[in-house]
């Protein structure tokens, strides 16, 4: 039961890190044009 006092805050911190990484990726434009990047890889010389 005592381990819950450690695991619950650690999981909350992990969720905040994941949300921060997702927010950073969206802010940097990683998901703006996914289709064009897939075509660029196939059309490259």
TrEMBL record:
It comes from the Bacteria. Keywords: Membrane, Transmembrane, Transmembrane helix. It holds the Pfam family FixS. InterPro entries: Cyt_oxidase_maturation_cbb3 (IPR004714). The chain crosses the membrane at residues 6-27. This is Cbb3-type cytochrome oxidase assembly protein CcoS.
């Amino acid at each position: 039961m005592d381990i819950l006092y450690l695991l619950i805050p650690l999981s909350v911190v992990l969720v905040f890190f994941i949300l921060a990484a997702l927010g950073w990726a969206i802010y940097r434009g990683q998901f703006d044009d996914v289709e064009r990047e897939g075509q660029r890889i196939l059309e490259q010389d």
